[in-house]
Specification:
Blueprint lengths: L3 E6 L6 H13 L5 E6 L5 H8 L5 E4 L16 H7 L3 E4 L2 H6 L4 H13 L3 E6 L3 H5 L3 H16 L8 E4 L13 H16 L3 H6 L1 E5 L7 H5 L6 E4 L6 H11 L1
Parallel strand pairs: 1-2, 1-8, 2-3, 3-4, 4-5, 5-6, 6-7, 7-8
The chain binds 1,3-dihydroxyacetonephosphate.
Length: 248
């Protein structure tokens, strides 16, 4: 079956020192039933991997280019991430959609770029507060997910993870109620089931948005929540470990 996964998205936080300390602390506590992934800023990926030296913590990048290579100053190619041993990559995080104008089409192109070199994409979906209040949550999720499914195909999803991150819950302290999150996770799974029943059963669906040590267990007890994508609370290794314990 699916198994739990907890991921720490550091966003633009941390240092070489905090990266070393964090990995050393996390790898010291083994986690046989929960996959752990860290998403540090690009410059600290190699540092993290030098300290990790084990399967205890998998590495992920926060973004990638939709292009394979070329004159794209500042961009990072999927093949470069794969080359240094990165396993996962976030695709379509709401902060990329919001501040870098990433459209559903760009997100789909990045998803395909990741899959084409064997990276596992973590596809982020989620509605804004305005969209939720207008009763458009399912419509938004259907469009965001549908575009990637249509453009990349079902086979591209075999190693993918999906993260539901309601934009209004990110960094606000307003966690979605577990029932609210479960409802959308079930909706996402039903969208997958409409394409392929096995894919729907096998795909891990993470919840993200103000996950903390004190609310993680309740969220993770929901039937369709297979772990979390954690921002702020992942920065301190002790908090991240507590959230992983809630998933174990
Ligand atoms: P917070 O946990 O800080 O709300 O961030 C969630 C997120 O965006 C993870 O990708």
């Amino acid at each position: 079956m699916r198994g739990m996964l907890v991921a720490g998205n550091w966003k633009m936080h941390g240092s070489m020192h905090s990266t070393r300390e964090w990995v050393a602390m996390v790898k010291a506590i083994s986690s046989p039933t929960c996959t752990r992934v860290m998403f540090p800023p690009f410059p600290y990926l190699s540092t993290a991997m030098q300290v990790a030296t084990s399967d205890e913590v998998a590495m992920g990048a926060q973004d990638l280019s939709q292009h394979a290579e070329g004159a794209y100053t500042g961009e990072v190619a999927a093949s470069m991430l794969q080359d240094i041993g990165v396993e996962y990559v976030l695709v379509g995080h709401s902060e990329r959609r919001q501040y870098h104008a990433e459209s559903d089409a760009v997100v789909a192109a990045k998803f395909l770029a990741a899959v084409s070199v064997g990276l596992r994409p973590v596809l982020c979906l989620g509605e804004t507060l305005e969209e939720r209040e207008a009763g458009r949550t399912e419509e938004v999720i259907r469009r965001q997910l549908g575009t990637v499914l249509d453009r990349c195909g079902l086979s591209a999803f075999s190693e993918a993870v999906i993260a539901y991150e309601p934009v209004w819950a990110i960094g606000t302290g307003h966690t979605a109620h577990p029932d609210q999150a479960q409802q959308i996770h079930a909706f996402i799974r039903s969208q997958l089931a409409g394409r392929d029943a096995k894919l729907a059963r096998m795909t891990r669906l993470l919840y993200g948005g103000s996950v903390k040590p004190d609310n993680a267990a309740e969220l993770f007890s929901e039937a369709d929540i297979d772990g979390g994508l954690v921002g702020g609370a992942s920065l301190q290794a002790v908090d991240f470990l507590a959230i992983c314990a809630a998933a174990s």
